Amino acid sequence: MRVLVMAEEASSTSGTSKPILEFARQAARNDIGSPPVHVTLLAFARGRETDLVAAARGEGIPTEIIWERGRFDWRIIEQLRAVVARCRPDVLWTNSMKSHFLVRAADLNRKTRWIAFHHGYTAKDRVDWLYSQLDRWSLRAAHRVVTVCRPFADEIERRNGVARHRIRVQHVPVHPSPVVPESELVRLRQELRLGEGHVVLTVGRLSREKGYADFLLGIARLRECDPALTFHALIVGDGPERPRLEALCSKLRLSDTVRFLGHQGRVQPYYELADVFVLSSHSEGTPNVVLEAMASAGLPLICTRVGGVPELVTDNVHALIVPAKDPNILAGAILRVLKDRALASRLARSAHSVVHQHSPEQFFRSIRSVFMEK
């Protein structure tokens, strides 16, 4: 089975590109049943190759590149047709609104089985908004639409008019995390000047829908609730909201408590360092960061009840689930976990115990079965 994956919007090896690389790795092993799957990555680039292309080539994954001059370079449609003719895929895997549109506009779905992967709608600008509107037309022509949570499946059916029997829900995969050496954790704690206090961690892109303003307001409320509590809040990630969040942090007088650490290529040491992980999002699909935190033994989670989060964790079993946009309740949940070590330990053990349900091997088998459906 030849699979051509269109990942033109993904320039890095994080976020929506992670499942692509995991699937390709499992396909390369060629020992998880039959038929064997051969993956080729198709990336779109402007001026230079992306980090995702470099990572794929480094792992021996065949790659194709289409060079474009901008986001509306119509010449790419002919280039795309040429790549498909050369690769002769049995399955086209599209991974974004733009790639959905290109497949339908180029009429490629008439000769090749097309599986569209949907990750939700977050309009960063007018171009993204336009593609989200075009998605109503694009997705109706896909043979199957795979999305990351049931609320997204409901939205695709209601908003886009895609028949329910053609929609599949598939959570993203995660690897069990290797143990970080204690010496590295000691060094990192010293570098960050954390002392002996608790560490509250959040990880992700600093964008409005992630609710980081609520996180900061919750941290301020936490300090008011227990002035004697010694803790630091670490924010790992970067994005367009960072200046506004740093200004809010200063306004709340949290500069001595909150650290903005920016993008980190290796996040695992921060999970190991933390005493609690917090997801404060207003909207989500299946958050990678929640699965990564679950894979870190010893880390309890607090998450807002959004998107596919309740499909991953059960309240008071694997995590504490709180309402979105309520910093006061968020602060109370953080305080509860930091004060109750028995609760924190129970949540962490329960969360870690279900990580195997989201393994790369199971993800590969599930997606391959979708590719083989009649």
**Contiguous uncertain segments of 5+ residues:** none
Radius of gyration from CA coordinates: 22 Å
Order of helices and strands: EHEHEHEHEHEHEHEHEHEHEHEHEHHH
Using the coordinates above, name the CATH class of the largest domain.
Answer: Alpha Beta
Strand content: 15-25%
Separation, N- and C-terminal Cα atoms: 14 Å
Provide the helix percentage. Answer: 40-55%
Number of helices: 15
From the coordinates shown, what is the CATH architecture of the largest domain?
A: 3-Layer(aba) Sandwich
State the total count of DSSP E strands.
13
Specify the CATH homologous superfamily of the largest domain. Glycogen Phosphorylase B
Shape: globular
Biggest sheet strand line-up: 3-2-1-4-5-6-7
Q: Please tell me the total number of domains.
A: 2
Mean pLDDT: 92
Structure description:
- By secondary structure, the chain is an alpha/beta fold.
- It has two domains: 186 residues, Rossmann fold; 176 residues, 3-Layer(aba) Sandwich (Rossmann fold).
- It contains 15 helices and 13 strands.
- The strands form two sheets. Strands 3-2-1-4-5-6-7 form a seven-stranded parallel sheet, with helices on both faces.
- α1 crosses α15 and α8 packs across α13.
